[in-house]
Amino acid sequence: MTALELAQQLRGQFGDVLSEPSEFRGEITLKLADAERIADVCAFAKKQLGFDYLVDVSSIDNYGDDPRWTVVYHIYGYGHHCTLRLKTDVGEEKSELPTVTSVWRTADWHEREIYDMMGIRFRGHPDLRRILMWDGYPYFPLRKDFPLAGKPTNLPEIAFTKPAPLEGGPFVTIAGGKDSLAREPRVRIPDSNDLALNARIERRDDDKNLHGHSHGPGPIEKK
To answer: Is the pLDDT reported for residue 216 higher than 70?
Structure first.
């Protein structure tokens, strides 16, 4: 049985709450319209369709769009060797959906990482606490509105009391801009506060005027 056939069986069980299967480069994806049904869908996929291995759970920050979050589940069956991707959206105001730890125990750490890095909660998780950052850390570092340079913290004798390690460079993200090149990545020129685009064809004129060249801080090898 193919992954597409298994996806069609899954949709047959849950109807319009699941999208028609889509295929891209041999990978099959189903979109779940109601995030509250994710545990039910996953339980059926495991028990009835043989998807006995949760490969990964990840999250996407659709910053500027609503719903803001997309949670993605990659599941695999050792019996039929098929892989399936399940996706569901969660609004920022709610930022919560059911845990799937009752289906696959390995979801425990995956969900904790998403909670820690993105701030999405998993209702019913047996131990939902931070897994990489320290308890009490007030930010979610993988959100798109979290600056690449980091943020300072104020937790004396617990964590950093000075700016976070990446604060100030070498890489920084600038909000706004007409396109991604205008926003990121930019690189801070060593021993200065000057910023230069990390693409030679897009160098700014003021960099050239200031430094006498437009190729950035490093030397150019002669051909």
So the answer is: no
186 residue type, one letter: R
Helix axes 3-14, 38-47, angle to 10 degrees: 130
Under DSSP, the state recorded for 67 is S
Q: Where are the beta strands (DSSP E) in the chain?
A: 22-24, 27-32, 53-61, 69-77, 82-90, 96-98, 121-123, 171-172, 186-188, 195-197
pTM of the predicted model, to two decimals?
0.73
**pLDDT bucket at 4, cuts 50 / 70 / 90:** very high
* Per-residue pLDDT, 198: 44
Average pLDDT rounded to a whole number, residues 144-158: 72
Q: Report pLDDT digits (tens) over 121-132.
A: 999 999 999 999
What the chain holds in terms of domains, given with CATH numbers, is: 3-123 (3.30.460.80), 147-215 (no CATH)
| Burial readout 176-186 (b: 16 or more C-beta within 10 A, e: otherwise) | eeeeeeeebeb
For 157-216, give the DSSP string.
TTS-SSS-TTTT-SEE--S--SSHHHHS-EEEPTTSS-EEESSGGG--HHHHHHHS-SS-
Q: What angle do CA 143, 57, 71 make, to 5 degrees?
A: 55
Question: Residue 88 in contact with residue 97, Cβ under 8 Å?
Answer: yes
What confidence tier does 205 reach under pLDDT thresholds 50, 70, 90?
Answer: low
Q: Give the number of residues written for the chain.
A: 223
Q: What are phi and psi of 123, to 5 degrees?
A: -65, 130
